[in-house]
Design goal:
Largest sheet: none
Strand content: under 5%
Order of helices and strands: HHHHHHH
Shape: elongated
Helix content: 55-70%
Radius of gyration: 18 Å
Distance between the termini: 38 Å
Structural class: mainly alpha
């Protein structure tokens, strides 16, 4: 058995644990909501209000770099990495099909990495460090938000857990880079410098 075969086997087991064995049908609607962009409109509105209300001078850099983060993670994951790895989604896995719960359509065939995970972990990382740069606060809940969306992707049958990990590992450095640009670009935002290898402790 190759290393990839071993990893895939472990990934299948964790997928089944989340998607079928450990699933609670009573909360299916909640997990479906978590992965719906409309659900998070209040969060985006809050971030927009917060940056304009409390840090107006840095608002346009914050907004522009937020959009840039999303654009890079979405394009990079969907148009470069997914075709490069060409890993099939769980809904195409003959070993999983008999027992898996598919709560949403299968979608495109390529699965790795998860664009949802890449986008949200990228945004969460950028926002975390941007907020820290501006006022020294560590909004760790941003990573909980990204993690919940990633978990929902596995729960509904859209991705393997490793797809979420891969998306997070792609989004994280993109968010860090955008935060470093924000640190150098926006006025008076460098009071608490970004540490590239630091964790949100």
């Amino acid at each position: 058995m190759t290393l990839w075969d071993w990893l895939h086997n472990i990934d299948q087991q964790f997928f089944s644990l989340i998607n079928s064995e450990g699933a609670l049908p009573a909360i299916d609607f909640l997990l479906l909501m978590l992965r719906n962009a409309i659900t998070w409109v209040p969060l985006y509105a809050f971030m927009l209000f917060w940056i304009i209300r409390y840090h107006r001078k840095q608002a346009w850099q914050f907004i522009l770099l937020s959009v840039a983060t999303f654009a890079i993670t979405d394009y990079g994951s969907a148009s470069i990495l997914k075709p490069l790895f060409s890993r099939d989604r769980p809904c195409y896995d003959a070993e999983l099909i008999p027992t898996m719960r598919t709560l949403v359509g299968c979608g495109g065939r390529n699965s790795f990495p998860s664009s949802h995970a890449a986008n949200h972990f990228g945004i969460a990382t950028f926002w975390f460090w941007a907020v820290f740069l501006l006022n020294g606060q560590k909004w760790r809940w941003l990573f909980v938000w990204a993690l919940l969306i990633g978990y929902a992707q596995v729960y509904v049958g859209k991705h393997y857990p490793l797809d979420i990990v891969g998306g997070a590992l792609f989004g994280w450095p993109v968010g860090i880079i955008m935060a470093k640009i924000f640190e150098r670009w926006s006025p008076r935002s460098g009071k608490h410098p970004v540490s590239t290898f630091a964790t949100p402790t």
